[in-house]
Amino acid sequence: MVMRMSTLFLRTLREDPVDADVVSHTLLVRAGYIRRAAPGIYSWLPLGYQVLRNIEAIIREEMDAIGAQEVHFPALLPREPYEASNRWAEYGDSVFRVKDRKQADYLLGPTHEEMFTLLVKDLYSSYKDLPLSLYQIQTKYRDEQRPRAGLLRGREFVMKDSYSFDVSDEAFLRSYNAHREAYIKIFDRLGLEYEIVAAMSGAMGGSASEEFLATAKNGEDTYVRSPGGYAANVEAVVTPAPDPVPYDDAPAAHVEDTPDTPTIETLVDFLNERFPRDDRPWTAADTLKNVLVMVRQPDGTREPLAVGVPGDREVDEKRLQAQLEPATLETFTDDDFAAYPALTRGYVGPGVLGEKNVSGIRYLVDPRVVAGTRWVTGADQHGHHVVDLVCGRDFTPDGTIEAADVREGDPAPDGSGPLELARGIEMGHIFQLGRKYAEALGLQVLDENGKLVTVTMGSYGVGVSRAVAAIVENSHDENGIIWPREVAPADVHIVATGKDASVFTAADELARELEAAGVSVLYDDRESVSPGVKFNDSELIGVPTIIVVGRALAGGNVEVKDRRSGERTEVAVSDAVGYIRSLVRRS
Amino acid sequence: MVMRMSTLFLRTLREDPVDADVVSHTLLVRAGYIRRAAPGIYSWLPLGYQVLRNIEAIIREEMDAIGAQEVHFPALLPREPYEASNRWAEYGDSVFRVKDRKQADYLLGPTHEEMFTLLVKDLYSSYKDLPLSLYQIQTKYRDEQRPRAGLLRGREFVMKDSYSFDVSDEAFLRSYNAHREAYIKIFDRLGLEYEIVAAMSGAMGGSASEEFLATAKNGEDTYVRSPGGYAANVEAVVTPAPDPVPYDDAPAAHVEDTPDTPTIETLVDFLNERFPRDDRPWTAADTLKNVLVMVRQPDGTREPLAVGVPGDREVDEKRLQAQLEPATLETFTDDDFAAYPALTRGYVGPGVLGEKNVSGIRYLVDPRVVAGTRWVTGADQHGHHVVDLVCGRDFTPDGTIEAADVREGDPAPDGSGPLELARGIEMGHIFQLGRKYAEALGLQVLDENGKLVTVTMGSYGVGVSRAVAAIVENSHDENGIIWPREVAPADVHIVATGKDASVFTAADELARELEAAGVSVLYDDRESVSPGVKFNDSELIGVPTIIVVGRALAGGNVEVKDRRSGERTEVAVSDAVGYIRSLVRRS
């Protein structure tokens, strides 16, 4: 059916919405695809819902092609299965919880590992039933602390989630790889530029995972890549630990009075002035910075953690957080300092931290802090630092942690060269779950020898509503959206210009003929709107092919414009349907 | 893609599920279409989800055909718009309420009048923009007190809801009738037997409404129809009030000692024995029964109500409830009796009730209790009744109420003959909302004269997941489901029987060829399953055409069986695709 702009439920906006912080949000609201209903919660207008359904159709085709079967679970889920997997507690504030009229506990499903596991357990019992991959395209919920960026981080959103069930790890790898290949096809068809990177498993548990990140300057995720092909989400980057350093000749540690050195910078200046070194000047990399945080477990318990990183690096909260999941980070407050009197604020050092019986605080350091490295760091007394403090001789951390920021030029952990930093939007995530959920919920099948074995699972997600925004982030210009053909709300946008009735007659007929030829049409048939406004709207809305029926009609032509390149071609009205049809088919 | 039962995520069950109380629930679970996830909350297995999507496709086509435009709203909705319409309070316990991490109030949308009204207000401002009809197919929530009957009364369910917006009541009627016609097409295509009946508007507000009820012996809704074409939900039946009766000659009311008459029956026997009448015996219809209930308003206030009905009728709680919505009914407890000492339990009469200053209780009577009618009823003292109590002379009720049950043979209110009672399942409901929501939320547009007018709205619902069950209630036999062709999970079910490899080769090829010809195929290719089990499964699953590839193959034939009639036809393998194709097209 031709979508006529005279009746289409659409109003484009000239002004940017005040609450929009990314270009996809701005353009999708201005072009009339979505409207905000509440923070992080959006309504889909006709054009937007068409795009969403086009994306769903692509995903369905590719999931069906690998033999995954579509099912549909509720969004309102009972507490019990999530209790069994411990996620009822682990999710903390990040899920919406609901009590029914009988005070029974429910949650709005953020992901469905438990439910799928239980359903397969209900139906299947033998290795002969496997492999099995199930998927759904469904509305999901997450009570984000800071919903932002429009559809990129919403609280109600559409996801495709799928789950694979296999009798062995080898069989699982085939399911995992099938999904990986299907995802490559999906994201290719969505017209996204993306990168596949190693990732953390986070709240999902399991052993390994990979993310599909759409490259985007203002993406929320930072990732790294090396010339040799290493690619990882920055949270998953492993710091190569240097070899231990011999320290037999190292001088004894000595405490120095270091007045007026509140920052690392002032401390380094002080050292270079008072204790100049012959071979090289002191730098921030010679100092060891100890950062205190409180770690809150899902069960509500709170315990302190000290993190030691070289002074030339910052603690990257997202990296630190990723190591500690499902626990969350909180600030180390004045009250916390008061509760640990061994700590001297601003001068906290391994002298206290490295002795757990003194401070009572767990002390984890950056992997670069290996045995034999020498540091200038807090002396646990006001206005004093300790110099030549040797790791492994003068203090022993409780372990290492990936908390320091990753920098452009850092070496890739696999030796494949210096890292480059880039940003992206998480579009897909594939998880090797192992047996975590199958064990928690008792999903076992009989193997060939009649022995019960626990099933190996994978879970796989695509952000469907997020994809709408990611595509816009990837594909727009200063005038508006440029949809890749497979997801566009229509194949062509006919713009009828002028006051002449013959223009509208010709445009009407062309629209009808194109639809009959299987080309979907958005048709600007508004009579009281100026050509300029119509052209602006067509650029903003972003249908890939724009057909102008107007001035050229006198010569028996219409103008066909490519939204992306801006290229214009005059085509005879009589040839237009054939020309457009081949254009739509080709791309 | 051919669905192969060797890999299809499906297990049919021999036993009825213990919690199933209606045949559709039993069959849908046994045939592997749905599984229960929580009370009133179901998961859709592959075949079930296919049926659901087929129904959605039919609805989409018919809604698009009347120019309605598809949008999609969130299910998690902010409190404010529902506050403005007063439904935040009115819904009481029947909606799921959610607080986010910032303690902001949300609800899980049971219906979306408010959100659509606000969206149209956001985009539109002129009479030129109207008429407009918008729809969505969406997951909805209602915290039913007693979720039951599987998909027929669930707590999470799929609905198509649409909303029309018009500048005048005349224009509105065109939108309403277009929806009515579309619904007729939808329910015809779903293969449902149904009736269109007058209905109450309930929590929706507005002036008038009609229901589409699928006829079903164990439907939850009772409706009436007359030979002359009157049809109404029993809740909406209006009792014709008889003319007042002259009572100048009526004897004075007299109180009688009526020992041992705890029931109407014993009272009538007592009257016939002690006060026999010449013209006709006393019957229950001569007595007036006064029933006490407590009415709880959405704001929590609770007040008593006395309902007087002729003693030969019961108070129909659903009818009474429908008149009082959004208030709910509660039992009149011992404590309540204690709070109203003027009441004598078992002998409550209009002597007390008819005098509001005495009892403090509102007293509403059946419309048949008109001025001049004479009654035997409670005398407000233990063991006593009053005889010849005349309405309008001896007592004056506060008004009338439709609370008495409706009986087979009652006269239709429009004089179209005696009513017949039947039962049905509410499949669709179309509401004339008037300006209730537009006024509450300020939806106005400029009319032709530049004057602001409030928009007239309609709302229209189809129970999509409920339709799956209603179709099964309408269409099954003792062996299983019989799907109408347009909603069936597949066009044909190929059953390969026997051990011979040639059978499977032939069946494989037939399945492939049918799919290539646009016929969707469910194919029982299981090798280790007996023909009996396969036949039983095919009857249970209910695909309309079953093709048996087996014994007849020796003669070059397959057997084509019609699931509904049981009729079997042998068709040459070489003709099978053409034959089946015409069969599928025809119906």
UniProtKB/TrEMBL annotation, chains A, B:
Catalytic function, reaction form: tRNA(Pro) + L-proline + ATP = L-prolyl-tRNA(Pro) + AMP + diphosphate
Intracellular or extracellular location(s): Cytoplasm
Cellular component aspect of the GO annotation: cytosol
MF (Gene Ontology): aminoacyl-tRNA deacylase activity; ATP binding; proline-tRNA ligase activity
First-level EC class: ligase
UniProt GO BP: prolyl-tRNA aminoacylation
Location (main, coarse): cytoplasm
The protein's Enzyme Commission number: 6.1.1.15
Alphabetized UniProt keyword annotations: Aminoacyl-tRNA synthetase, ATP-binding, Cytoplasm, Ligase, Nucleotide-binding, Protein biosynthesis
Gene3D superfamilies: Anticodon-binding domain, Bira Bifunctional Protein, Domain 2, YbaK/aminoacyl-tRNA synthetase-associated domain
Ranges where the Aminoacyl-transfer RNA synthetases class-II family profile domain occurs: 35-484
Subunit text: Homodimer.
NCBIfam families in the record: PRK09194.1, proS_fam_II
Record note on domains: Consists of three domains: the N-terminal catalytic domain, the editing domain and the C-terminal anticodon-binding domain.
Its job: Catalyzes the attachment of proline to tRNA(Pro) in a two-step reaction: proline is first activated by ATP to form Pro-AMP and then transferred to the acceptor end of tRNA(Pro). As ProRS can inadvertently accommodate and process non-cognate amino acids such as alanine and cysteine, to avoid such errors it has two additional distinct editing activities against alanine. One activity is designated as 'pretransfer' editing and involves the tRNA(Pro)-independent hydrolysis of activated Ala-AMP.
Family label: Belongs to the class-II aminoacyl-tRNA synthetase family. ProS type 1 subfamily.
Protein name: Proline--tRNA ligase
Organism name: Phytoactinopolyspora halophila
